[in-house]
Amino acid sequence: MTDKKSVSSSAVGIVAMACCFPEKILPISEICLQEGIDPDFILENELDIGQVRVFEGEWRSDPAVAAAKECLSRAGLKPTDIDVIVDFSVLPQDYVVPAWSMSNKIQYDIGAEHAFNIGFGGGGVTNLLAAFKFVSALIKADDGVRTALLIASDVSIPRNRVINPDQPMTILGDGASALIVSDSADVLEILETEISSDSSRHDVFNIPGGGLAHPDRIDLYRVKIDPLKYSVSSSFDALKQLSRKAADLAGISLDEVNHFIGPNISGKDQSRFAELFHLSDADPFGKNRRQYGHVQATDLVINLSDFLEKQAGRMREFGLVCSHGWGHSSGAMLIK
């Protein structure tokens, strides 16, 4: 039985975070050899990724179970304290989605018997921001919901780590993450979350094979990004507008935001973030990108964890967590 709370006074935030990465490390040179790509081509496209982690287990949901258990431990909570579980994964896991959701299995594996489950898909890294927006609103509005567990596990399709080999845009690593969001948070408060979707780019990021479009084309069962539908300028323009809107709703200027936390897609992508937000430190989380590659929305959890470590003992400052979602689904979340 949860305590009653006031919608107007509830401050919702992130209580704990945890990531789980496979032990096996695969250097970029070996990935290029496996996928028939010239390593110099990777350098030419300014990906700035040195290695990735590779999952070799049976069930792709297992890393998310481990991350969830670690996150609960860090928060000092029991599985029965969880009211809702949200899956923000991007890539397919144990079974075909959306007929199956990993959040259902996580509930069973950790024993969160009081929770209900939901999943967000189709938004790339912005899946996590959609999850934040949903649980923040739900916790503030529903007296029966106080604590949410957000989880993801993303494992690459075999021989599909270099996305768009003819014009490489990123290199995928494997990993999982979990976060606890609650109205009793005193660590990282979620102030505003703004999201927008451009439906004309609904298929900019997709796996063409294996679905109804090409049910028998297993050769097309691989992630691709349509370069004709991904517009750098419009994607980053949309992100800037959302960021300003989030700041306005919080009653501050975007100039008052001290930290900008984005995904680890590539060195080139980060340079665009730095230019967009006039960052004094152009690549604050570059070591994470070089060590793990692009692990979908788990990128944000890795970088948020770094952000918290750097802020330990300091006066609380504003931060913006953002994603362009390859132009289809953009999001900006203001934190403090």
Automatic annotation (TrEMBL):
This enzyme's EC code(s): 2.3.1.41
UniProt entry keywords in alphabetical sequence: Acyltransferase, Transferase
Q: Name one GO molecular function term.
A: 3-oxoacyl-[acyl-carrier-protein] synthase activity
InterPro entries recorded for this chain? Thiolase-like (IPR016039)
Q: What are the BP-aspect GO terms? A: secondary metabolite biosynthetic process
- What PANTHER family does the record point to? 3-OXOACYL-[ACYL-CARRIER-PROTEIN] SYNTHASE 3, ACYL-COA:ACYL-COA ALKYLTRANSFERASE
Name the chain's protein: 3-oxoacyl-[acyl-carrier-protein] synthase III
Natural source organism: Syntrophus aciditrophicus (strain SB)
